[in-house]
Amino acid sequence: FSSHASALAAYGYHGTKDRIYQALADMNCTALRESIRRIDFATDFLMPEHFQAHIEQVACHSHTKVAPYWGEVENPDQDPNKPTVVTRGRKIESITIGKMPGRQAIIYNKRKAAIEQGKTFWFKVWDIDPTDTTKKIWRVELRAGKRELKDKWQLTTFQDIEDCIGDVFAEATDQIRYLDDHQTDQNVSRQNLHPLWQAVLKAHEENLCDYRAAITPNQLKEVIKERQIEIHLQQIVGNAASIAALEQLTDTEIREEFSGQIMQTLQNKIDGPTESFWESRSRTKQRTFFQT
pTM of the entire structure? Predict the structure, then answer.
């Protein structure tokens, strides 16, 4: 399923999710574990009539190159950290930073896009007259694709998203910023944020606060790793208890000899002629995300 903006505008996130499950139920489908491949969060702002976006005011990671792209934005060789620009005449209509299915931020003229795409319902949402050309609506849209959600943050299900999608977008707005006009300080870390970006941060704080776990990806990985280790240790203890029961060992034999026997058996497997232990370790390393 792919949820369109019109559904979200009409029913909200939870209402749209309920409608997805209802549609599946109506088709007699059984919903198992879902896999979320993309989440967008957009904020629309009524900007001053004279507002124009400027690519030189985009601040990203220090290695990021800022360069304009003239024309269509689809370019498979585009550096994912390089902002691209869509222009019309001498006016920038869109600035894109990043590349899907990773992380992407777009600053664009939503009023013009709504008219060109025939999505005039947005004017009802904004409560403005579509013929009033003095009302400039600009959108800041953050997108998190499969690589960002699953590979980096280990978010797959609706519950995962509801637990910490706010952390994903908080990191995005920290690493990608739009700076205020006419600043001379060469150190961008000391430059002030543009009022537009300040409004973005405020909107995220007000709307995504309940969807934050306040942890970083590395902290999340550490929590999951510790939990997996705990699960495997529980399995080892359970399997050892089963072996002791099958061998009909007495309590005294278990306390005095059994742990040593288990350790020796494990050491024999490690030192033995077969590679089964090392092959199992290799498979686990390949399918986990804890390796650096």
Answer: 0.69
Q: Mean pLDDT, to the nearest integer, of 276-287? A: 83
pLDDT beyond 80 at 291 = no
The closest of 35, 71, 65 to 145, measured between CA atoms, is 35
Question: Residue 251: what pLDDT?
Answer: 93
Q: 88 with 129: CB under 8 angstroms? A: no
**How confident is the model at residue 190, as a pLDDT?**
87
The secondary element (H helix, E strand) that includes residue 98 is: strand 91-98
Residue with tokens 């997108």: 143
Q: Provide the residue type at 274 as one letter.
A: T
| Sequence-separated (6 or more) residues with CB below 8 Å from residue 214 | 167
60: helix, coil or strand? Answer: coil
Distance CA 71, CA 87 (A): 7
Distance, in Å, from the CA atom of 144 to the CA atom of 292, rounded to the nearest integer, reads 22
DSSP 148: I
CB-facing half-sphere around the CA of 17: CA atoms within 13 A: 10
Q: What is the pLDDT of residues 6-26, one digit of tens each?
A: 889 889 999 999 999 999 899
Name the residue type at position 68: P
Q: How confident is the model at residue 110 (pLDDT cuts 50, 70, 90)?
A: very high
Q: Could you give the CA distance from residue 167 to residue 163 in angstroms, rounded to a whole number?
A: 9
List CB contacts of 4: < 8 A, sequence separation 6 or more: none
CA 51 to chain centre: 30
